[in-house]
Amino acid sequence: MKLRVIEGGLGEAADQRETVASARRPSREDVRREAVRRLRESGYHSSYVREFATGVPAPEALRYLKIQLDFAAETLSRLDPIPHDFSADAYWPSADTSR
């Protein structure tokens, strides 16, 4: 079996997608992806799975953060036009769950 090295790879494709995305107006889908990214980084998904498996409720702060992220995403996606800097922290709730 012969193997060949493919020039470019995923790194260049990701850079090209980013360049194309920065040239166009943000969409509702872009806002939704940002909300999902922030929720994933908060640890909500692992807490939800743990709650499902063990019956121990997820921390109240994480459940409240999900509600806030959903609200922010819905509000941002209804703006016309959606701000180009929609992923800035100023538009999103803080992920500080220590409170």
Description:
Residues 15-34 are annotated as: Disordered. It is a single chain. This protein is mainly α. It has a domain at 26-91. It has helices at 9-23, 28-42, 44-54, 60-78. The longest helix has 19 residues, at 60-78. The radius of gyration is 18 Å and the shape is flat. It starts with 8 loop residues before the first helix and ends in a 21-residue tail after the last helix.
| Arithmetic mean pLDDT | 83
Which percent band covers the strand fraction?
under 5%
- Low-pLDDT residue spans: none
**How many H/I helical runs?**
4
Q: Kindly name the structural category.
A: mainly alpha
Helix content: 55-70%
Encode the helix/strand succession as letters: HHHH
Distance from N terminus to C terminus (CA atoms, Å) equals 58 Å
The backbone outline, from C-alpha atoms, is flat
Radius of gyration: 18 Å
Structure summary:
61% of the residues lie in helices and 0% in strands. It contains 4 helices and no strands. Residues 15-34 are annotated as: Disordered.
How does the SSE layout of this entry go?
Elements: H1 9-23, H2 28-42, H3 44-54, H4 60-78
Which labels suit this protein?
single chain; 99 residues; 61% helix; mainly alpha; flat
